[in-house]
Amino acid sequence: xxxxxxxxxxxxxxxxxxxxxxxxxxxxxxxxxxxxxxxxxxxxxxxxxxxxxxxxxxxxxxxxxxxxxxxxxxxxxxxxxxxxxxxxxxxxxxxxxxxxxxxxxxxxxxxxxxxxxxxxxxxxxxxxxxxxxxxxxxxxxxxxxxxxxxxxxxxxxxxxxxxxxxxxxxxxxxxxxxxxxxxxxxxxxxxxxxxxxxxxxxxxxxxxxxxxxxxxxxxxxxxxxxxxxxxxxxxxxxxxxxxxxxxxxxxxxxxxxxxxxxxxxxxxxxxxxxxxxxxxxxxxxxxxxxxxxxxxxxxxxxxxxxxxxxxxxxxxxxxxxxxxxxxxxxxxxxxxxxxxxxxxxxxxx
Amino acid sequence: xxxxxxxxxxxxxxxxxxxxxxxxxxxxxxxxxxxxxxxxxxxxxxxxxxxxxxxxxxxxxxxxxxxxxxxxxxxxxxxxxxxxxxxxxxxxxxxxxxxxxxxxxxxxxxxxxxxxxxxxxxxxxxxxxxxxxxxxxxxxxxxxxxxxxxxxxxxxxxxxxxxxxxxxxxxxxxxxxxxxxxxxxxxxxxxxxxxxxxxxxxxxxxxxxxxxxxxxxxxxxxxxxxxxxxxxxxxxxxxxxxxxxxxxxxxxxxxxxxxxxxxxxxxxxxxxxxxxxxxxxxxxxxxxxxxxxxxxxxxxxxxxxxxxxxxxxxxxxxxxxxxxxxxxxxxxxxxxxxxxxxxxxxxxx
Amino acid sequence: xxxxxxxxxxxxxxxxxxxxxxxxxxxxxxxxxxxxxxxxxxxxxxxxxxxxxxxxxxxxxxxxxxxxxxxxxxxxxxxxxxxxxxxxxxxxxxxxxxxxxxxxxxxxxxxxxxxxxxxxxxxxxxxxxxxxxxxxxxxxxxxxxxxxxxxxxxxxxxxxxxxxxxxxxxxxxxxxxxxxxxxxxxxxxxxxxxxxxxxxxxxxxxxxxxxxxxxxxxxxxxxxxxxxxxxxxxxxxxxxxxxxxxxxxxxxxxxxxxxxxxxxxxxxxxxxxxxxxxxxxxxxxxxxxxxxxxxxxxxxxxxxxxxxxxxxxxxxxxxxxxxxxxxxxxxxxxxxxxxxxxxxxxxxx
Amino acid sequence: xxxxxxxxxxxxxxxxxxxxxxxxxxxxxxxxxxxxxxxxxxxxxxxxxxxxxxxxxxxxxxxxxxxxxxxxxxxxxxxxxxxxxxxxxxxxxxxxxxxxxxxxxxxxxxxxxxxxxxxxxxxxxxxxxxxxxxxxxxxxxxxxxxxxxxxxxxxxxxxxxxxxxxxxxxxxxxxxxxxxxxxxxxxxxxxxxxxxxxxxxxxxxxxxxxxxxxxxxxxxxxxxxxxxxxxxxxxxxxxxxxxxxxxxxxxxxxxxxxxxxxxxxxxxxxxxxxxxxxxxxxxxxxxxxxxxxxxxxxxxxxxxxxxxxxxxxxxxxxxxxxxxxxxxxxxxxxxxxxxxxxxxxxxxx
Lengths: 349, 349, 349, 349
What we know:
Four copies of one chain form a homotetramer. The longest helix of chain A has 16 residues, at 319-334. In chain A, the strands form two sheets. In chain A, strands 8-9-7-10-13-12-11 form a seven-stranded mixed β-sheet. A six-stranded parallel β-sheet of chain A has the order 3-2-1-4-5-6. Chain A has two domains: 2-149 and 319-333, NAD(P)-binding Rossmann-like Domain (Rossmann fold); 153-315, Dihydrodipicolinate Reductase, domain 2 (2-Layer Sandwich). By secondary structure, the first copy, chain A, is of the alpha/beta class. In chain A, helix 1 packs across helix 11. The radius of gyration of chain A is 19 Å and the shape is globular. Chain A is built from eleven helices and 13 strands. The B-C interface holds B 12, 15, 18-19, 22-23, 43-44, 46-53, 184, 200-201, 242-243, 277, 279-280, 283, 286, 288-293, 295, 297, 343-349 and C 12, 15, 18-19, 22-23, 43-44, 46-53, 184, 200-201, 242-243, 277, 279-280, 283, 286, 288-293, 295, 297, 343-349. Chains A, B, C, D: GO terms for molecular function: N-acetyl-gamma-glutamyl-phosphate reductase activity. Chains A, B, C, D: It is found in: Cytoplasm. Chains A, B, C, D: Keywords: Amino-acid biosynthesis, Arginine biosynthesis, Cytoplasm, NADP, Oxidoreductase. Chains A, B, C, D: This is N-acetyl-gamma-glutamyl-phosphate reductase. Chains A, B, C, D: Residues 3-135 form the Semialdehyde dehydrogenase NAD-binding domain.
């Protein structure tokens, strides 16, 4: 058995990694660590992880994390670099934080206000990388020792739009995205606007006007797919549900592109993917359908009157949007079958 | 007391009209009628309307509706024209259906597949009509005998964008709107995708690609405000809540417009409005804050990187989005103070 | 106009009092005060109270609260006595806290761990007091200067069971109550289990085994109605909704009581009440039907096999369960019509 | 591989069986059948079952169902007997309907209004059967060819109370249960009260007064555990969530039983169970913690003042409450490890 440690196991992302590892046939759970919750039983922090309820959270230290084959980091931004540097080059380190996602140090500084830690291979295997009709990010991940897991919104948006941009069916210069997320995407921090009384029955936007930190990550992914600079107007909204992202993504139909031919780009891109699915024409994604699974459901329509293509993607922000991608990347890094242990059906209704 | 009848009282819109009329100091409730529910007690159909629980739903006929000062029609599309024609020119008829909203018979036919019944004064008092810096639709409603109540999405979207378009701060040619609605907007029809088990915990889009019937109504309103043809990419989504619309509306910042000056258009447009409120800078609308009220909460941000202005509006689809607008219009038509009897605070949390 | 101050206006109960006062024809809102939120605008704390958004929260001091005709206290337990003592005997003080509800100093000490502040007239006008077939608590409230507003659970449970106990149709010795409450009943405190991510999609009990502080208040009310000591097994549960209490209350059918005759006790008790309604046979209360209203919906069934009567009551914990009762009591104390300004229809769906 | 057919695959129970079988290492999915949905693709009916989306629903006939090792029936009540009779005695038939659960033909007739089809081994392995300190229903299920899967409420209630009744710590004569269920328990039928607009934000009871069909099943289970006739006052309520049951169960503390000794009965009963867990003292079940899993979380408290023990159990009505139990029973019948393929962690938050 491969032995895994999970740092930051008390948060929602850490909890979801543990849930997935419990069902993984080749990975066993070693150390589980936390910050403020260190010393507590997992049963008190994550009562849904019944088989782990007697496991105690340790402090997040190099000592505790050492001696595992793979270490999952689910830490607040800025905490991964120092730890990873001490973990040994042979250990697979999967970072769920943002620290190593961006290539541009300037973009990092603008959005995160600290100095850039560096760039690791970006953990979105299905992302078209634009260097050929079927070139995908997967190529960079096999046997990698360090992988940066994508953000949840960038996962939905990038997989929604990349095929059309890579195929030249969409123009790169005026992409507009409005996405709704469940509250678990905001984490477990005690903030008044995240109280159940405030979120139930309510929709609200946040980070409006291009200031959300996932904006440069989305633009980086889409620009690579397009082979050109993509600018995105991105508005996230908070929805009254615990999990799920629904990203409604629009881009202008490229001049000269026939509406009827647009769909082929997505069909071709995802025909062989295990987790990314273009739904049958006319069927639209629902976040409930991917809940708890590693799936991405995608659908699109061409609005010829408005001159735009609308692509909608649904993911579970905690599964494919974070922990599922982390396990998927670990599988690739460890030389396992990419889909090993990952849920392929949503929990609905 | 002014005497009102409500036709289609068994639906959600009809029920909300009755809820508002119960609190109206100058209107008393006369006949309440229905189609399939005729003969039932209101207490069985709308148990929340406690004081009306002994009232029995009559058939929707001209005879029953005659003899009232004002008749509210909350009927399926296509049923208003024949009834209204027989109600007498002196009776105020407020139609919550779509039949008389559109000016273009072609647009009607394209989206509704029937022949156009005509056009009534459009019941959105606060809408800028573009013929001057403060010209508003209110001018067409005082003492009107026939009024077409706007659709719920058009209410949120039009009030969100009209000030910027009228002021020339936004370009009219590439408006993109993504809106989330509570399930009551879809009515009380028994459709599988509206079951609680299906909608709770789930977000999903529908009517994607410019096919939703509110599209031409939005374009009509915005084109009038802009004094130019506005094209909209409109994507509605269904959110896990019973009430509320959150419309995220974006348009390109007009060339030569200074970002800092944009906000003034909204401040000027709504400074004196009782129901439409530009929130203080940095505070964003939440649908829960307008629940059950006739308010519209609006906020905007300029995204200079993306070259777009993002305007977000929240309304209660059943109140300001339908029944509240209907009562507000009735007040104007009847010569009452426009705000009479309308709730000015939301029911939160 | 009568002038009212609201102390503790930043919480959910305080906010609801303000919402109701905004619609009250004879009361105007004077000082609004808070603890930690003092200095903030109401618009930041309660964005749903649109007309009050420019009002600033003052500190909760005697000076600020003085000079009003009525003062509503919505403070944490233990803070009312000192304030009330300094407010002048002619001022109407309506306390939404628990401090003055209990008659037994022992019960207070057992459940609240502090010394007993005293007992004020108990603000549940519709409660049968057992001293005669129609004797109700209302008699103690007219022109009272100090009133203790009941707790939310005791409101639902007491109004559900009192008629049967007073009529001798139910035995007092083995009452079992299980109640579900929306999260606003737990207040605005930042506790992990109240996060939206934790409560949405989940039901859970708390305070199990007779330890919830509303237990002695329920027993006090029911014992008075029964004219005998009533013991209650009370289990509250947290439901995934912001507002509402559904109390399922059972007691044993008194020996010799005919099942068919049981209902009459409730019919007689509530026939003339404006807010407490026994629903038509076969129709069961739903919390949504009373949302935002001052109504209590009640229904019952006799289970002859089990030898128990099941009575279910629905209230909005913030309205009739707190703020609505407070305004109702203020109306009585001020000599106004008891129902003045109070919503008689729920906001549904 | 063992080959399974699922009849009634278009409903929620059938869909959940398929979800679980997708993760089962030794069972492959053969025929999937339906009534009104026959001919449709599974992708249209259960879009969350992504890997099965191309599978087409066949008619529910003996021909289609024949030739499988195990047949799961998820049919409306009354449809199982005729089918099962033709399926061959060597085929394992797991019936999720009520038809074969009750031993008493009289109870069946009283609650279901049809004639009794018979009694199959009852599929609740962990149920104490009272014939000894550790005698459980599991003994009747190994290698059985016909198994009746328990109802969802009876699962939660029986596992909650059986240990205390079997140990004599609870008196059997006045059990009171109030349970909250998610809406999926009511199935996919198109009924107005199940619309999302009606259930979100609302709690309501149904089947009050001993008329719910699960009442005799609960009494049968508890009577067997107690070795005495148990009478239950059972009130189910509908909660605003898609999945989950929270059962609050109370019984009187048996005379002479010491409160401190009560807990031992549950500890002993479930110490070795894989799916039924007595939580650590002070931690209470939440339905979200068992969502999508086959777990039952149980906790109890003794209320000495009221003379009652309160036991709360949480299950997912579709998993352990139906489909999980079905697969667990199939495992036993097929000679597999009982826990094979069943999720042991909930999907939270």
